[in-house]
Amino acid sequence: MLQEMSAEDLFSDFYKQWIAVYKEGAVRAVTLRKYMLALAWIEKLAPELRLKEVDRIAYQSLLNEYAKEHEKQTTTDFHHLLKGAILDAVDEGLVPRDPTRKAIIKGKAPRPKKTKYLNQFELHKLLASLELGQDIGWEWFILLVAKTGLRFSEALAVTPADFDFTRQTLSISKTWDYKNGGGFVPTKNRSSMRKVQIDWQLIVQFSVLIKGLPEDEPLFVKPGQKVYNSTVNDVLTRTCQNAGVPVISIHGLRHTHASLLLFAGVSIASVAKRLGHATMNTTEKTYLHIIQELENKDVDLVMRSLTSLV
């Protein structure tokens, strides 16, 4: 299809075909939606832009218009979503030269960052305030995520069969497609398929809780039920407020879990494996501020150790 296009065609039409050829069926649904959203912005900001007109000035102008409504990081992501298609257009001879070279990324000032994770004392207060009944509810979901660091979709997909109480593990081999009406789907990546070690207290609690439940049905999603991230976050918000701790999201519980492990001295490699990160680089990037803080503590420890040798 791309070979049938000419330099006279609209950039938005080329980008739409490029997505169909290279991305549909090759990337996850959530990633495909990002490309489609980028297409919508091209159609909005540069509806008349033709391939032959995509030079450095035109491309920079497009980025600048996008940056008026978005933060710098979001503009960077937009740039990366477009760049692959544009370079292919250059290879096809539809765009004369690479217009993305030396592009300047601008953007609105970032909004004040919300609290992403709790400290150990705050987490203890939060978990102590949970109303854990005999029936499975979102309070149990919050406890599970806090103690395992699972992603939201991973925790939704947990079934009784995933627990191995003898080996004290929880198998993560699937996720719940809550954004598209439900159902089991593959994990985010191969590294996300893992066995997470769980503590004895969680074992005792869930061994009683799941007794007699269907082995292969999700614990937290009833048949035909639609689950929204916002619904569970609302429950967590009320719980945080009742406990008198900063309000965080379900994903913030995952950050909390990882942060506490790092502060406890668990290696980055082990934390990355437990979280299901594809590489340690992801873990290092996400928790750079904590790692830097730990490095500062290590320097102090080294200096004290050397001083004691005198």
From TrEMBL:
It comes from the Bacteria. InterPro entries: DNA_brk_join_enz, Integrase-like_cat_sf, Integrase_catalytic, Integrase_recombinase_N, Tyrosine_recombinase_XerCD. One of its GO terms (biological process) is DNA recombination. PROSITE patterns: TYR_RECOMBINASE (PS51898). Keywords: DNA recombination, DNA-binding. The keyword Oxidoreductase does not apply. The keyword Glycoprotein does not apply. GO terms for molecular function: DNA binding. This is Site-specific integrase. It comes from Alloscardovia macacae.
